[in-house]
Amino acid sequence: MSTSIAEATPVHSQDLNQLAADIVAKAMRAGATDAEVVIREGDEFSTLVRLGQVDTLKESGSRGVGLRVFLGQRAASTSSSDFSPEGIEHLVSGAIALARVTSEDPFAGLPEHGSFGQLTQDLDLYYEDVYSLPGDQRIDYARRAALRSYSPYSSFRVGAAIRLSNGEIVTGTNVENVSYGLTICAERSALVAAVSQFGPEIRIEAIAVANLNNAASPPCGACRQMLSEFALPEAPVVFPAADGQRVMSFSAILPLAFDMKLK
Ligand code: THU
Predict the structure, then answer these.
(1) Domain 2-115: what homologous superfamily?
(2) Which pLDDT score is estimated for 132?
(3) In what order do the strands lie in the sheet with 244-249?
């Protein structure tokens, strides 16, 4: 039995924008007719818990810069994780040198500025309150959330925590039954506990799901529908996905909840 929480924390920094602009300018000065840069920086945190004990703990940082230059119809790309001035110099001169020896491609080139898509608002994919939890609390949270599971039939131990607008955090776990269909999921357990404790006025501001099986477990459709009457559309939902920990807004995981409003 294990649980794993992984995250990629974007660091929105003006410095990275500036660095990207500097690299493009450098490439243009070095002879490029066009250039584009992508910079990525993040932190990763993951922990594996077995039988209630921390088995492995990994905290690491990663970053990378990618450059694509065009010399007319010749193009080349280089990438690096070295952001030092020498590293950047090397990145740019390498790309230019490579482009000089590549053959011309009549279709190479960047699209016109006007044909780029434009994001008018932040995609809201980053939630400081989730990422700002200290490491030991995250481990504790992962461990506690699913340890109380009653799941003798599936052995799939799920935990859910919901944060309410009154500041309270209520947790729930899955409770199975030999008549399998009677099983209640962790998310609905947390929801009914929250309503039972604080009444029907509760509003859910954030939802987190974890399991002790090191498997993907987004909230199931039934739980999404149940939560929809209490969850704010922008509430972040954190859950283990196939590609690691994911955060999506509630409205993104349930775009068309059933409602009974008459026309
Ligand atoms: N389960 C949850 O607790 N939440 C979900 O969203 C989906 C499934 C539980 C129910 C059952 O005990 C086990 O996972 C296997 O389906």
Answers:
(1) PmbA/TldD superfamily (3.30.2290.10)
(2) 67
(3) 169-173, 158-164, 204-211, 236-241, 244-249
